[in-house]
């Protein structure tokens, strides 16, 4: 397992990051990677309703969002996050062509992913999402 | 001397001419017959010419002047041969001077002063004149103008020739039927057509009875009888069949009845007409009709909606299928009426396609058509091809609209299935890697890692196979459990110490992998440390389905080992425990309990089941 920021990108230490992923083992790996990078994990949750409740209640700096939640697309969660100005990193097994037009250019990480690369990408996204 | 008398030009000139200087001698000494002839000549209204004496000197009257033209007035008193040097005139002269009378018929003259009539014709009657002693003194020639006769004869000949040529090229059989006698005059073509002798008069009855097809005879007779009605126009034309040795032929007869008044009564007396062999045309017409019928059958039989249109998408015709599908009548669909059957959102696009169709030379577009029977819209693919004339200009468009709704749905489904497949493959690889990581973290050495990881990978693979093979979208729980036990060589039954019991439960595929893997973990654990390792121990697996407080179905599965000597609880939380205690609740909303009790492992798993009849799509199922 790697140290925080080992592969470049801004540190995500102390950032509050929501994980929305329905596969337990993938969710657990994500949580572990973010924990080790010093982030505060919100969730994980595996279905749309629970995710929307967390988006509503929690203060968030970023979200990792699986596109397919138990056969249900998670774009409604993405919209809720957008409305709150929370940057979203899509996790998907889909190719870009199968995603809706407006999300094709959105930041995405294809499965299976490497933890270091994920942490680095998450760091970039947090930095961009909070210009200072 | 005052002879000859009269005030005509030629009377005066003959009177004043110096005849004494000629071989005819002084006028007062001319013989009586000559004088008598000159008097007749000058009195006659028709052109008259007299040749007299050894030199045959010329005399003529006023009416003869146009024939002479500019030879007058010098011709008077000149020898005939000097006035008319032409050969045939000389021959005629010799004959008449030898005492023969002759007619010179239709002699052409280009007379001046006759505008529009370049040529005139005269017939000359030459008569020798004898003296008292019987010798021939000269001749007298009376001329009669025959221009009108010549011209009308020629015109008649020409028109007959034209008619002959015309009937030859049209291949017309011509007949003239005398109704009183029943005789028929006919040309060669008619005779050939109706199998009649080449010569002689024909008989109408023989033609009608012998040649006209028996099935058509009554109708032919009726039509002729009708045309002979004096009150009518007397014109008829009809098609009928005749029988020939070479087979049946079709004939078009056109005729005009001639009427005449006989005994104070108007009656049909003749029928003049023509016959044309139209067999080839009839056959061609039949072929066209058959071909049209076949095409029509095809057009109305195929599932496509067929239509015709002109440039700009103005329809001229739609097939019965169109009417049946859209509920539009012919009158509804023509022009731009068909747009009404199209989904409102597709109409503008359709017109745009049409405006580009002429340039593109084809039309292809998709659009939704309203089904009149249930009001739903189906996707149709519309294609049209221009029909061009010989100069390549578009005359009209022939189009078809094909229902591609099912195809489109299948395509969309295929796309979403493909996307799902991608999702599943990538997800399961991610899961496998995650399982590998966890297994590695808890393994003592590589052999231990391989042993555990292979078992888990195989269990995952088995559940994938049964899920993929499930047609109903469900998997039988008992089979799932038995497969897991069999994979490590364990079977239930008397003496085995393993019991399985429970009702038939169809697991939704999205729960199969997780539960299958949980059974696998419990089985491996029992094999290593528990009931399946100890010969005297027992394993009881039982399940039942309950209703929870909200009336939802819940599967309750218990795994109970007994008779296992006490073994130390593994210090770390194993993979199997994480799966059962965390993954199942997270993934399936299950409530689980895992414990080491006296005598072995006791595991209790409660999984919510979907309401019966509500099984998710097999391919949409979850992995773990």
Automatic annotation (TrEMBL), chain A:
InterPro entries: CheY-like_superfamily, Sig_transdc_resp-reg_receiver, WalR-like. It comes from the Bacteria. Coiled coil: none annotated. It holds the Pfam family Response_reg. Residues 16-126 form the Response regulatory domain. The modification 4-aspartylphosphate is found at residue 66. This is Response regulator. Keywords: DNA-binding, Phosphoprotein, Two-component regulatory system.
From TrEMBL, chain B:
Residues 236-290, 363-416 form the PAC domain. Residues 291-361 form the PAS domain. Its EC number is 2.7.13.3. It catalyses: ATP + protein L-histidine = ADP + protein N-phospho-L-histidine. It comes from the Bacteria. Keywords: ATP-binding, Chromophore, Flavoprotein, FMN, Kinase, Nucleotide-binding, Phosphoprotein, Photoreceptor protein, Receptor, Repeat, Sensory transduction, Transferase, Virulence. It holds the Pfam family PAS_3. PANTHER family: ETHYLENE RESPONSE SENSOR PROTEIN (PTHR41523:SF8), TWO-COMPONENT SYSTEM SENSOR PROTEIN (PTHR41523). This is histidine kinase. It comes from Sphingomonas corticis.
């Amino acid at each position: 397992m790697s140290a925080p920021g080992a592969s470049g990108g801004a540190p995500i230490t102390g950032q509050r990051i929501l994980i929305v992923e329905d596969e337990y083992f993938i969710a657990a790996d994500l949580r572990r990677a973010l924990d080790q990078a010093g982030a505060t994990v919100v969730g994980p949750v595996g279905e749309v309703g629970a995710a929307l409740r967390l988006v509503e209640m929690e203060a968030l700096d970023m979200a990792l969002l699986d596109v397919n939640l138990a056969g249900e697309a998670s774009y409604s969660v993405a919209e809720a996050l957008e409305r709150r100005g929370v940057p979203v990193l899509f996790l998907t097994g889909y190719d870009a062509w199968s995603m809706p037009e407006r999300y094709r250019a959105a930041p995405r990480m294809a499965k299976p992913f490497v933890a270091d690369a994920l942490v680095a990408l998450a760091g970039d996204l947090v930095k961009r999402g909070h210009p200072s | 001397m005052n002879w000859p008398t009269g005030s005509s030009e030629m009377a005066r000139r003959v009177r004043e001419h110096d005849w004494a200087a000629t071989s005819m001698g002084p006028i007062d000494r001319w013989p009586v017959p000559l004088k008598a002839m000159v008097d007749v000549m000058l009195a006659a209204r028709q052109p008259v010419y007299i040749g007299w004496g050894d030199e045959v000197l010329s005399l003529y009257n006023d009416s003869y002047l146009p024939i002479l033209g500019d030879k007058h007035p010098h011709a008077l008193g000149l020898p005939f041969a000097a006035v008319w040097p032409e050969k045939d005139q000389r021959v005629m002269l010799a004959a008449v001077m030898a005492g023969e009378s002759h007619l010179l018929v239709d002699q052409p003259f280009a007379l001046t002063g006759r505008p529009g009539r370049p040529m005139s014709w005269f017939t000359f009657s030459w008569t020798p004149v004898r003296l008292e002693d019987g010798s021939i003194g000269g001749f007298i020639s009376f001329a009669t103008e025959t221009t009108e006769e010549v011209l009308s004869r020629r015109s008649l000949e020409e028109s007959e020739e034209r008619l002959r040529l015309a009937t030859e090229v049209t291949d017309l059989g011509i007949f003239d039927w005398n109704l009183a006698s029943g005789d028929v005059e006919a040309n060669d073509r008619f005779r050939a057509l109706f199998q009649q002798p080449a010569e002689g008069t024909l008989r109408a009855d023989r033609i009608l009875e012998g040649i006209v097809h028996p099935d058509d005879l009554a109708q032919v007779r009726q039509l002729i009888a009708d045309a002979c009605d004096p009150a009518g126009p007397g014109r008829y034309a009809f098609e009928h069949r005749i029988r020939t040795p070479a087979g049946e032929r079709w004939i078009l007869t056109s005729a005009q009845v001639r009427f005449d008044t006989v005994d104070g009564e108007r009656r049909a007396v003749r029928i003049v007409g023509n016959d044309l062999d139209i067999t080839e045309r009839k056959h061609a017409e039949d072929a066209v009709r058959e071909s049209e019928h076949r095409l029509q059958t095809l057009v109305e039989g195929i599932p496509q909606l067929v239509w015709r249109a002109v440039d700009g998408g103005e329809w001229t015709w739609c097939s019965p299928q169109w009417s049946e599908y859209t509920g539009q009548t012919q009158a509804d669909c023509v022009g731009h009426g068909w747009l009404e059957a199209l989904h409102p959102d597709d109409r503008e696009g359709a017109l745009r396609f049409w405006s580009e169709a002429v340039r593109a030379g084809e039309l292809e577009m998709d659009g939704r058509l309203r089904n009149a029977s249930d009001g739903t819209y189906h996707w149709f693919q519309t294609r049209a091809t221009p029909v061009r004339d010989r100069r390549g200009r578009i005359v009209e468009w022939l189009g078809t609209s094909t229902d591609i709704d099912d195809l489109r749905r299948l395509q969309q489904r295929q796309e979403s299935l493909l996307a799902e497949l991608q999702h599943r493959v990538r997800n399961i690889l991610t899961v496998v890697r995650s399982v590998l990581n966890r297994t590695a973290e808890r393994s003592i050495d590589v052999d231990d890692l391989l042993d555990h990881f292979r078992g888990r990978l195989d269990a995952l693979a088995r559940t994938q196979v049964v899920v993929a093979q499930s047609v109903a979208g469900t998997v039988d729980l008992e089979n799932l459990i038995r497969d897991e036990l069999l994979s490590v060589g364990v079977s239930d039954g008397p003496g085995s110490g393993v019991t399985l019991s429970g009702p038939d439960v169809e697991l939704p595929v999205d729960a199969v992998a997780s539960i299958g893997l949980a059974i696998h973990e419990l089985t491996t654990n029992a094999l290593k440390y528990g009931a399946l390792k100890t010969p005297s121990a027992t394993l009881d697996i039982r399940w039942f389905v309950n209703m929870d407080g909200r009336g939802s179905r819940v599967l309750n599965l218990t795994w109970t080992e007994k008779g296992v000597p006490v073994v130390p609880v593994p210090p770390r939380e194993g993979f199997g425990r994480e799966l059962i205690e965390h993954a199942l609740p997270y993934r399936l909303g299950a409530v689980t309990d895992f414990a080491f009790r006296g005598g072995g492992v006791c595991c209790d798993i409660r999984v919510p089941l979907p309401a019966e009849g509500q099984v998710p799509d097999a391919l949409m199922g979850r992995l773990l």
